[in-house]
Amino acid sequence: MPCNDINNPSFEGGFDFWYPGANPYYTTAWVGSGDAYAGDQFVTIATTPEYPIGTVNQDLYWLDDEVPYELTVHFRLVEPFGLINGCTVSALLGEHEIASLVVEEAGDWAPLTGEITPPERNMTISLKAVCGFGEGGSELQGQVLFDEVLFGPRCD
Fold first, then answer.
1. pLDDT per residue over 90-113, tens digit each?
2. How many separate domains does the chain show?
3. Widest Cα–Cα separation across the chain
4. Would you say residue 1 lies in a domain?
5. Of residues 69, 56, 70, the one with CA closest to residue 11
6. Which residues, 6 or more positions from 10, have their beta carbon under 8 angstroms from its beta carbon?
7. In sequence order, what DSSP letters do the residues of 34-68 get, joined into one string?
8. Is the pTM of this model over 0.85?
């Protein structure tokens, strides 16, 4: 089980410590409540054919660049609006991918896990959704929920 270097890991404080990605990725993201994995809140990243990539980010400081860090984050693809060809759900530390999965249909909460040794002490962690869309106009939307972000070195 990792120690957690993430502030506001379950989005119970809204966007406290988190921020949507900047261009070139336009992110429509909001904190919702309801069927969360942990607590009452989660973050939703919505993608469209015009903006198929969305991220939420958190800046991390004083990471130990000599030990591996473990990641566990729970995600869920909700029933899409229109024809969607699945989404790739991933987590990155700076430009370095920690973990990635292709999700082809809506379902229950599932874990995304991975491990990385931080290449630098101060970096940004990003939760990313990239959805593919079929033909059908601008009314299409893919929504990926994220909750309970755990990232840190092993504690035990």
1. 999 999 999 999 998 888 999 999
2. 1
3. 51
4. no
5. 56
6. 36, 37, 38, 39, 41, 42, 147, 148, 149
7. SS-SSSSEEEEEEE-SSS-EEEEEEEE-S--TTS-
8. yes
pLDDT by residue (tens digit) across 56-94? 999 999 999 999 999 999 999 987 666 667 899 999 999
Structural domain boundaries, residue 53: 19-152
**Residue 17 parent element (H or E):** none
CATH code where residue 52 lies: 2.60.120.260
Phi-psi region of 111 (alpha: psi -120 to 50; beta: other; left: phi over 0): beta
pLDDT band at 28 (very low <50, low <70, confident <90, very high): low
Is residue 75 within 8 A of residue 11, CB to CB? The reply is no
Query: Residue 15 has which token pair?
Result: 């966007």
Q: Residue 69 domain-assigned?
A: yes
Q: Report the run of H or E that residue 90 belongs to, with start and end.
A: strand 84-93
Q: Which two tokens stand for residue 89?
A: 């759900």
In the chain, the amino acid numbered 138 is: S
